[in-house]
Amino acid sequence: MPLQLDVPRPLLKDRKALVAGIANEHSIAYGCAQAFRELGAELAITYVNEKTRKYVEPLAKELGAPIFMQLDVSHENELETLFERITGEWGRLDILVHSLAWAPKDDLQGGLLDCSAEGFKQAMDISCHSFVRMARLAAPLMKQGGTLFAMTYYGANKVVPNYNVMGPVKAALESCCRYLAYELGSKGIRVHAISPGPLKTRAASGLKDFDLMLNTAAQRAPLGELVDILDVGVTCAFLATPYAKRVSGETLYVDGGVNIMA
Question: Stretch 25-42: mean pLDDT, rounded?
């Protein structure tokens, strides 16, 4: 029986993708943007503030992104303003990548027991609830279905020394992905939590003893090496194609197999 799939060429031709969370050329979100663009998608790219704009703007130009806007999800109305522009220029959205995570340094580098209530609240709001808010705005634009991605980490499910408050926060994010997959499934919208192995990104640099995490992952990975941002990007790109149209609610590890090791 021949394969019965309506598959465009390239695979993401004419798709509209919002990628939030690029800080520089080492960002996981940049790997996603590169993969989407390579497969034909048109991009909207955000930067968090003027300090990061100088690093992100050349990347947005390189990728030909027609929409390039500031987005700090802790600032009132910036998220709504972004989606107003996407609605006005595109009228639809097919792919969304949420690669945003933050906690106050003292709360991030201290143990969970010493995490302040305010620090916990800020980490949860920026790293987790902002994905729910983005999904709420994106869903009406995904009239023909779509795919939402959030970035998590192994520390959501197992204790990783020095991951601290981000463990509970990422656990909440993974749960949000499952519930959103359930609530949005009837609209043809699929939701995934992507769990990369440790990568040298700007966000990861705030973790205490991060180099030790990198070395440990490389030693334990069955494939014998660390992953890179393009490994994550092409995985997300695949999940956004018609080939993965019946896959939703997954926490997918892109870590060289580290997560299977005892």
Answer: 97
